[in-house]
Amino acid sequence: MFAEAHTKIGNGITxxxxxxxxxxxxxxxxxxxxxxxxxxxxxxxxDSILQRLLELNCANSPEVSAYWQRTSxxxxxxxxxxxxxxIYLFADESPVRTFLTSGTSSxxxxxAHYSRRGLELMNASILANAQRHMFxxxxxxxxxxxxxxxxxxxxxxxxxxxxxxxxxxxxxxxxGSVVDERGVDxxxxxxxxxxxxxxxxxxxxxxxxxxxxxxSERLERDNLRFQLPPRSRIFDAxxxxxxxxVINVEELRSKLERTFGIPPSMCRNLFGMTELASQLYDSTDxxxxxxxxxxxxxxxxxxxxxxxxDSYASKPRGVGLLEIRDLCILDRPPLVLTGDIGIASPExxxxxxxxxxxxxxxxxxxxxxxxxxxxx
Amino acid sequence: xxxxxxxSWIPAWVDASAVAPIKLTFGSQFPTEGYLGxxxxxxxxxxxxxxxxxxxxxxxxxLALRKVPISAIVDAIGTAAGRWxxxxxxxxxxxxxxxxxxxxxxxxxxxxxxxxxxxxxxxESLWLTLRREFGEPSxxxxxxxxxxxxxxxxxxxxxxVLQVLTGNVPGLPALxxxxxxxxxSALIAKVASSEPTFAASFAASLAEIDQRIGDSLLVTxxxxxxxxxxxxxxxxxxxxxxxxxxxxxxxxxxxxxxHQRYFEHGHKLSLGMISARYxxxxxxxxxxxxxxxxxxxFNQLAxxxxxxxxVEASADTMRVLGxxxxxxxxxxxxxxxxxxxxxxxxxxxxxRRCSDAWRSSAGDEAEMWTSSGSGWTVVVQPEFAQPxxxxxxxxxxxxxxSLGECIDIVRPFGNVLQxxxxxxxxxxxxxxxDELASLGAARLCSPGRMxxxxxxxxxxxxxxxxxxxxxxxxxMHDALEExxxxxxxxxxxx
Lengths: 376, 494
Hints:
The complex is a heterodimer.
Chain A: H1 5-9, H2 26-39, H3 46-60, H4 62-70, E1 77-78, E2 97-100, E3 111-114, H5 116-133, E4 142-148, H6 157-169, E5 176-180, E6 183-184, H7 186-198, E7 203-208, H8 209-221, E8 233-237, H9 249-260, E9 267-271, E10 280-281, E11 302-307, E12 318-326, E13 335-345, E14 348-354
Parallel strand pairs in A: 1-13, 4-5, 4-7, 7-8, 8-9
Antiparallel strand pairs in A: 2-3, 5-6, 9-10, 11-12, 12-13, 13-14
Helix pairs in contact in A: 2-3, 2-5, 3-4, 5-6, 8-9
Chain B: E1 5-6, E2 19-27, E3 38-46, H1 51-66, H2 70-84, H3 90-103, H4 107-118, H5 123-134, E4 144-145, E5 151-156, E6 160-164, H6 173-182, E7 186-190, H7 198-209, H8 211-214, E8 217-220, H9 227-234, E9 239-243, H10 246-253, E10 261-265, E11 269-274, H11 276-282, H12 284-296, E12 306-312, H13 315-335, H14 343-362, E13 367-370, E14 377-380, E15 394-400, H15 403-410, E16 417-423, H16 426-439, E17 443-445, E18 470-475, H17 478-483
Parallel strand pairs in B: 1-3, 6-7, 6-9, 7-8, 9-10, 11-12, 11-16, 12-15, 14-15, 16-17
Antiparallel strand pairs in B: 2-3, 4-5, 5-18, 13-14
Helix pairs in contact in B: 2-5, 2-7, 12-13, 15-16
């Protein structure tokens, strides 16, 4: 676990008086290098990295600094902060890449900007995590992506991350995306699956959870079933927004077993969102959430915390607000209050759905009340 | 608490075999130590195949109730209300405990809510309500001379009314029960899982006073998603009234049959407006106390509670007012705390605070004050943006340049506008009241009085007792013409 951030921030850092830290400042150079080292396994650096990331944010973003002062401790930045003009810490360095959220939770799309160094860190995090959790015991498998190619969806972070993973670990001849702007290309999917089976090459299927549910239902309707080679596996990315369609983990996995011949024990979920640079993978195959959600595996560079809504204390067990500490985010605050509900356990944190601001009784929820936005 | 609390009231004439005892567990989706847990209840529920028999029995009870003079019904309700207004009455004490267990509300907020709700049902208040809605309450007993039409009028309530209750305000189910009894109808009340205990206890208290009333009431529960139960319960009733959120009301509406009358009390928006003149006259501290009172009553979960106050003031004055409202809310919470929030609500509140804190950090005009726990929150911001509506003493103060601007801001919400506190002088009231009435507001009052609507108030802008009845007029009848004293005749024809 990380040391509590608010005790650190009170220890010598005065957020409002920090002068801006330039992108080329050695402080940033060193920080980025240390994060790379952390990704390489040097765990001892993590408290220092968190401390320096907080310092960088306080120095370069008056909004973040004011927010942390206002909330009394380093509370995660709410996901609503990413709507509209999002936070980006380096005014002296243009972003090299911007990703957009789907906007499904509020209708307004959020943005996440990346500097060159920030993007390099995100790439490194994605690949380190994928190597650790996805490709154990596999040599150049077929990687079939149920997400669009980057060319088709250049601002979708899931498309970017999965293409990056595929480029690093997959056999390009046997791999590819089977989704385009028209939807799933079932012909191409079948072609890739049959080729991998013919080649006896293990397949790694990756994509959004709801996409897997849709694809398996469609293939079942078409009476198409596959027995993929041994050691094939499935990784569904069920971020919070993807969970808008309620999917029971066991149900999904048995569908996938029927369709692809991949046993449930070879299926894993990963949690990611546009606002983060790192993803969190299932740590064990033991159900923890009400729909069978598995606990996520904390890494030195990314960790789930469950916050008590009253005290904001970190809870070792039980239900609360999900906060992610992602030390691979260089361009924005590393602490994100995702708007999800988490269950903490010794095995990790399971993400079990969105916090809903549901009114009780007859008091109205006003979703948006701004001057002159609606005509009577 | 007892192992299982009873949440149903089944009239004595119902055969025991017609109902099934159902064990229910309600409570937070996430029962956690330190928060609300799960509570076990026992509910007698008519078996689906027995609903026709039960409704038939209720119709017979209603016919018997029609023979009871309205004065006797008013007296019985008034007597029961008098008992309920005594905080030390054993039934009230026991029900208060049950409500606290079910909702997590603090004892004082439950007591204050019950005080405010139940004092509305004194005999005097009931008579005033009947006079306001019916003119002459004796129309509920027999044909009565009509003061306008040359003839007589009689008001007849439905034999059976189904009321789908909500659990947001302790004691509120009494309103649905009383309205039904005032038109001498029998009642099926479906309680809410969020507070299932009060209605049955209130029914029992009425039965203790008049068995004929007890025979006309049936209080039970079924899951709102149970279409079979809905279809069975609803089939033979003449009138349905639903309280609740948009989703709940839509669910009830989907079961309504063509011949049935249906009334809904759905989501509403209430707020306050303060003019610069009123602010100058009353002073910041006085107004802050009024705002805090309106925000704290019923933990801001009632449709009449303000979600925001729009204030004609500068940014500097708003900061002073915000701070004063924070102090007033804090003072209020010392004697009447919020209580324990269900974890779902606490999480929504924390997220809303974080979103508002972020907005405040990004804008010069925004400010925020919070209690150390979830107790209360004050936000000053130039716009009232999402997410909102968490209730639980979370008030947004918004500066405006004039009362006219308030109207512009509220205009998009005219169709859901309910209760508006108007802090203004007589001249301003004359101007703005008409505009608010035109927009859709159903009640205007002074700041600090938002949560004290009288029973006479036309809830949702409607006459909620009178709308239940069917009228029968005798007019153009020779016999009546002969017996009618000439002096009472009023000819409305040109």
